[in-house]
Each structure stands twice: as structure tokens, then as C-alpha cells.
């Protein structure tokens, strides 16, 4: 690459902001996603035409099963420009439930938005996803949503964030009026007042009226005085935004808003552009960092099959780490050493697919015909590189899968192997159970439904699934298999990567086994939350 090309890649990378939204179901992630897209003019009207009960459709919902359930299982990336930046919103799947994919998406982003329901505070799934962000050192922006409804006190929420995450909240805006009586926000950087105006159903961009402090006091009276006093309190306690501590994962800028009313969304986009990090050199297996202007490299963080039943395609979602991606280029897969022709590459968001001709670090591309790629694979051009494997996460749900029709054994095996390779579920086996009855293990139970659905529709091998009462899986070694298998309620199975996993019904059983077999190797996989 010429130095001019390298400079061009650096400039493009510097424009990128790639982030994901982490939240508990119902905090408003879909609503916020639609609102962001609306603001970015990516979609003319937020997809709020139908109520949820009637099968609410947003652009991020697809696949018959998803639509039937009104949830979004799969992930995709929404790209849009805002000011001079190119924003990539990588969708974290899992509304009612989540899977390893939800975690893996976080390996593909440079920042995350933690969306908190003002009335509920930090909830279970938010905390689990937060733990992954912390582990990866991802910069975190916090959005307190649903301020239009009665909720917790704003200062109380700040205390909760600090206590439970260890991050110091540094509010950039502060609410004027309590939850349910949302008047607007004080912009702590400028001292001005941004007045909240309700819009019909939130389908249009909320007009934002900005006024100075004197005008705000005149208009809002005590509500303004309280907000200004609280803001000073925050300043005195050192809760002001600082770029360095934010990027180091020590502080989190906080914004208040109402996604459903499209209020605060504009501020969030500005914060993403102004303070969120752009792609930086990514560590490789040799602990060096590949500069973003080096030749093309990317890693696969998600495999997706069956997006288009007519075509039976397999899509690999890859995050670009360095260089420029050009459609048609032939890259190398670091795991197999084999070439992969990127004949078609797509940007996928919901039902929308756009052909990508060129992409840069921070972007996510969906590579079609990717049957030979796996989650975690590195792809590169010219200069070999390999990124570390994605962590595996401790499964918490287990089920035995059997073919309904034993004569379809071949199809059954093909399906099981494929689902395991894609990382949809982990596949565990033992001599005792035999190959006809593998145990599927998953982070979230919805993965079983995905597996069942795909076995029937894609592999033509309908299955039955019987849930097992285990909740904990720990890695052990071959020499402990016999001893552990003798323990009441404990079973050891082998995972496809060769690891032995000992399954336990609960913590109580685990600690009693630890007492009985104090020397047994029992290691936790990456467990979060
Ligand atoms: P999720 O993707 O995180 O699961 O949440 P989603 O956006 O589906 O939002 C969950 C519910 O919260 C929806 O209500 C949505 O309208 C509501 N909501 C989202 N943001 C706000 C907000 O800022 N203020 C208020 N008051 N509500 C908000 P629903 O009743 O489940 O569905 P719907 O019938 O409103 O679509």
C-alpha cells in the first residue's frame, strides 16, 4: 500500500464509531435503535406501526421465528453517517433471552451504550453484559431511558451505577424535572437548557429548543434551580467527564432521555462522535498490535445461516480490524491457510441487505458463501496475522437432542456438527449417551429453539429436545472423569474442542463434590455476571 493509501485508511478509520447497546429486555433497546436510525435518516419513520402484541415489526426483526415471537435473535449491523462520522451500530441479539452471540458481538465493537430503565436501574442482563465490557476494557456510555415516566431519583441512580459497576458516572446532561415530569435536560458542558417537546408517538424527530440558563429559570422555576444545584454537586464531587478515564474504562458519561419520544438521541449521537473511540490497533496472538493502516484483516464474530431460506446461504459477520476491504478480494483464512474469495459482501440490517464494495476498520461486513468459516476465524490479506480466539462462555442450560426419525441419522449428524461449528450451541458427548443423543449446552435457553427450528427446516431432521436439570458446567481433565461420574447427580461429557465438562445441578452439589474430591480439577470457563 502506498503511503497515500495508508493515510486514507487511517482517515476512514478515524471517522468510524462502532458500538453496541447493552441492556436488559424492555429497557428500550429496539426503540433506541429505531430512534438512532431515524435521527440518522437511515429510515424515514421509526418502525412503530404495529403494537408488540400484534407482532410489532421493526427493521431489526426477521426470520419467521423471530417475527412469530416479536423478538430479535440474530445480529446485524446498522451503518449510517452522522456529522462527519460513520456510525456502526452492531445489534446485540437477545431480547427475551441471550446467547453466546450476544457476548461475542461485544468483541466487535469499540464502545458500548448501557441502556438503563429509569424505574428499574441496573438489571441482571445489563450487569452480565457489563461484565463482558469490563473484561474487554470497552468504553461505556450510559443512557438513562424512560425519563418521561416516574422512576428512581437521578442521584440515586448515579450511586447505583457507581456501587454496582465500579464506574464513576460523569453526567453530560442532567434532567430538569423528576421522572414522569420530564421538562428537558441541562447540558452540563454548555450550561444551557434543552427543552423536551413531546411528539406524536415518537415517529418524528423531536424538535429541540435550546435556551440559556436565565430563560430556563424563568420558564421552569424550581425544577431548573434543583437541576442546576444537583449539577454543581456533581461537579464538586468530581463527576465531570474526562476523556482519558472514560477510555480507560474508569468513568462513564451519562445521558438522560426518552427513546420512545426520541429525546436525548441527538445528544447520544453527538457524544458518540465527540468522545467514543475510533478503531485502534488490535492485539494479535503474538501480542503485537496490527496497525489499522496495515493490509486488510478481520475476524469472524458471528455465523448466520438460514437468513434467506430460498438460498440456504451462510453468512459470516466479520469485523474489519485493519486495511481496506474491497469486494471481490481474495483473502486468507488464518486457521485453514486456505483462500476465501469475498465474491459478495453485504451490509445487513434487519431485512435490508446492501452490497458492500468497500469497507474500513470498525465496519462489519456479512460475507456470503462462508460455509468454511468459523466463529473466531481471522481473515487477512498479504501480511499474515491471527487474532486471539473469542472466549467461550460457561453454558447454563442443557438438553439432550434426538432425531425424531432415526432413519434420518445422516442429516441429524450433519446438522449437529454444523450448529456446533457455528457456535449456536456447544455440543457435548459421552460414550454412555452415544452419538444419537448428544447434549446441547447453551448460555441462554432460546438457543435450543433455534437449534430445533434449524434441524427441522434446514437439515430436514426434526428432533426432540429434553431439558436436563444441570445448571453449571466446569472444565475437568481426563483422569477425573471416572471419579466425577460416580458422584450423585454429576455427569462428565466431552465438548467438540476436546475439553471435558463436568455438569452439576446446582452450587450446593458442586461444593459437596469439591469437599469430597478436593484435588479434582474443576475450572470455570469464562463466566460473567
Ligand atoms: P427492548 O428492545 O429493550 O426489549 O425494549 P423495547 O424497545 O421493545 O421497549 C420496551 C417497552 O418500553 C416498549 O413498550 C416501549 O415502547 C417502551 N419504551 C421504550 N423507550 C421508552 C421511553 O423512553 N419511555 C417510555 N415511557 N417507554 C419506553 P411496550 O408497551 O412493551 O410496547 P409498545 O406497545 O409501546 O411498542
Outline:
This protein is of the alpha+beta class and 529 residues long. It has 14 helices and 31 strands. It has three domains: 20-275, Rossmann fold; 282-380, Elongation Factor Tu (Ef-tu), domain 3 (Beta Barrel), CATH 2.40.30.10; 397-516, 2-Layer Sandwich (Alpha-Beta Plaits).
Structural class: alpha+beta
Domains (count):
3
Model regions low in confidence, pLDDT < 50 over at least 5 residues:
43-75
Average pLDDT level: 86
CATH superfamily grouping of the largest domain: P-loop containing nucleotide triphosphate hydrolases
> What hetero molecules are bound to the protein chains?
guanosine-5',3'-tetraphosphate
Helix fraction bin: 25-40%
β-strand number:
31
Name the features.
529 residues; binds guanosine-5',3'-tetraphosphate; Rossmann fold; Alpha-Beta Plaits; alpha+beta; Elongation Factor Tu (Ef-tu), domain 3
Amino acid at each position: 500500500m502506498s503511503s497515500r493509501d495508508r493515510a486514507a485508511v487511517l482517515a476512514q478509520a478515524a471517522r468510524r464509531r462502532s458500538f453496541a447497546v447493552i441492556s436488559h429486555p424492555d429497557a428500550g433497546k429496539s426503540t433506541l435503535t429505531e430512534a438512532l436510525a431515524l435521527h440518522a435518516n437511515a429510515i424515514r419513520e421509526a418502525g412503530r406501526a404495529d403494537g408488540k402484541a400484534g407482532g410489532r415489526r421493526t427493521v431489526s426483526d426477521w426470520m419467521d421465528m423471530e417475527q412469530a415471537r416479536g423478538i430479535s435473535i440474530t445480529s446485524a449491523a446498522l451503518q449510517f453517517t452522522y456529522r462527519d462520522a460513520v456510525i456502526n451500530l452492531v445489534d446485540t441479539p437477545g431480547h427475551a433471552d441471550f446467547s453466546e452471540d450476544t457476548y461475542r458481538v461485544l468483541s466487535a465493537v469499540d464502545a458500548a451504550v448501557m441502556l438503563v430503565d429509569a424505574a428499574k436501574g441496573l438489571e441482571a442482563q445489563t450487569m452480565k453484559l457489563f461484565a463482558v465490557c469490563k473484561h474487554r476494557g470497552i468504553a461505556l456510555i450510559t443512557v438513562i431511558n424512560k425519563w418521561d415516566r416516574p422512576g428512581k431519583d437521578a442521584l440515586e441512580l448515579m450511586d447505583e451505577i457507581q456501587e454496582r459497576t465500579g464506574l464513576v458516572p460523569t453526567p453530560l446532561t442532567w434532567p430538569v424535572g423528576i421522572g414522569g415530569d420530564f421538562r428537558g435536560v441541562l447540558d452540563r458542558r454548555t450550561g444551557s437548557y434543552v427543552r423536551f417537546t413531546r411528539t406524536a408517538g415518537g415517529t418524528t424527530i423531536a424538535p429541540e429548543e435550546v435556551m440559556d440558563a436565565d430563560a430556563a429559570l424563568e420558564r421552569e422555576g424550581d425544577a431548573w434551580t434543583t437541576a442546576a444545584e444537583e449539577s454543581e454537586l456533581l461537579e464538586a464531587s468530581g463527576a465531570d467527564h474526562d476523556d482519558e478515564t472514560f477510555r480507560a474504562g474508569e468513568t462513564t458519561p451519562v445521558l438522560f432521555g426518552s427513546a420512545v419520544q426520541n429525546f436525548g438521541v441527538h445528544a447520544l449521537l453527538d457524544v458518540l462522535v465527540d468522545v467514543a473511540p475510533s478503531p485502534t490497533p488490535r492485539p494479535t496472538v503474538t501480542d503485537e498490535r496490527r496497525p489499522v493502516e496495515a493490509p486488510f484483516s478481520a475476524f469472524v464474530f458471528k455465523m448466520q445461516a438460514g437468513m434467506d431460506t430460498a438460498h440456504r446461504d451462510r453468512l459470516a459477520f466479520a469485523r474489519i480490524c485493519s486495511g481496506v476491504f474491497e469486494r471481490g478480494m481474495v483473502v486468507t483464512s488464518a486457521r485453514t491457510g486456505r483462500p476465501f474469495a469475498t465474491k459478495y459482501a453485504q451490509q445487513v440490517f434487519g431485512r435490508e441487505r446492501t452490497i458492500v464494495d468497500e469497507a474500513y476498520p470498525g465496519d462489519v461486513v456479512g460475507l456470503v458463501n462462508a460455509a468454511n468459516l468459523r466463529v473466531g476465524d481471522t481473515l487477512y490479506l498479504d501480511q499474515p496475522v491471527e487474532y486471539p480466539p473469542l472466549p467461550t462462555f460457561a453454558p447454563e442450560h442443557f438438553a439432550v437432542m434426538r432425531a425424531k426419525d432415526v432413519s434420518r441419522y445422516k442429516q441429524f449428524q450433519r446438522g449437529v456438527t454444523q450448529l456446533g461449528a457455528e457456535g449456536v450451541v456447544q455440543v457435548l458427548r459421552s460414550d454412555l449417551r452415544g452419538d444419537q443423543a448428544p447434549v446441547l449446552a447453551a448460555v441462554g435457553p432460546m438457543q435450543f429453539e433455534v437449534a430445533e427450528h434449524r434441524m427441522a427446516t434446514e437439515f430436514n431432521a426434526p428432533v426432540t429436545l429434553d431439558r436436563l436439570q444441570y445448571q453449571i458446567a466446569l472444565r475437568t481433565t481426563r483422569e477425573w472423569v471416572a471419579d466425577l461420574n460416580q458422584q450423585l447427580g454429576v455427569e462428565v461429557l466431552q465438548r467438540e474442542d476436546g475439553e471435558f465438562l463436568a455438569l452439576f445441578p446446582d452450587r450446593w452439589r458442586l461444593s459437596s463434590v469439591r469437599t469430597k474430591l478436593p484435588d479434582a480439577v474443576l475450572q470455570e470457563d469464562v463466566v460473567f455476571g
